[in-house]
Amino acid sequence: MAKMGRATWLLTALAVASSMVAAQSPAIKIMPLGDSITGSPGCWRALLWRKLQDAKITNTDFVGTLPAQGCGFTYDGENEGHGGFLATGIVSNKQLPGWLSKTNPDVVMMHLGTNDVWNNKSPDEILAAFSTLLGQMRDSKKTMKILVAQIIPMNPPNCAQCAQGVVALNKAIPGWAAAKNTTDSPITVVDCWTGFDDAKDTNDGVHPNSSGNEKMANCWFDPLVRVLKS
Ligand SMILES: *[C@@H]1O[C@H](CO)[C@@H](O)[C@H](O)[C@H]1NC(C)=O
Ligand SMILES: *[C@@H]1O[C@H](CO)[C@@H](O)[C@H](O)[C@H]1NC(C)=O
């Protein structure tokens, strides 16, 4: 009896302590949104999570309807990185509102457009899709914070227009973001293009290998930390 009493007291104390911690720093829900570069397996997210832990930034909760895939260590890896998906396709299939309502993110970090470029969509078509997705994010949460990547370079075999298509999209993103920016729901443009070499940082001209994953974790880290601290 005495032992049980002590165990109960300990449990209660632990529960109170952990609820105090929770009250002090509610986890910020972050949705990584994209295609296979983000989700299949997207191990740059594992490296990014580890960098956050190393920096003692632990009030995060990565969310999404897809589970983490193996990246060699346990990490918080839920995501919306859907292999093969286009921004224009996510819009025409009306998929984002359902993902948002299931997971309620505070922050969306989006690396999208690769498959659109591959399928010959123009920057205008892709940015129109981004605008629809942005509206859906803000419908889900008025103060949504959005990070939009200037995507990594791509040069797969049999895609003559891919390399230049990514350059054209990335060039158009900052102007789009500035025009859509609001005080309530700020947009941060994240440059994941500069310093990434599709010949050295991917094995297939598209998907980051281990050096590419390291570069992607690095491109997101500072902008994400700034958003988390704002
Ligand atoms: C959006 O506005 C914020 C300030 O509210 C600013 O820090 C940020 O750079 C702006 N983003 C763009 C893409 O202009
Ligand atoms: C990444 O892929 C490229 C091309 O296949 C290769 O040359 C390079 O050694 C790889 N780097 C790492 C760190 O895996």
From TrEMBL:
InterPro entries tied to this protein: Ester_Hydrolysis_Enzymes, SGNH_hydro, SGNH_hydro_sf
Signal peptide from the UniProt entry: 1-23
Assigned keywords, A-Z: Hydrolase, Signal
One Pfam family it belongs to: Lipase_GDSL_2
Keyword Hydrolase found: yes
SGNH hydrolase-type esterase domain segment(s): 33-214
Protein name stated in the entry: SGNH hydrolase
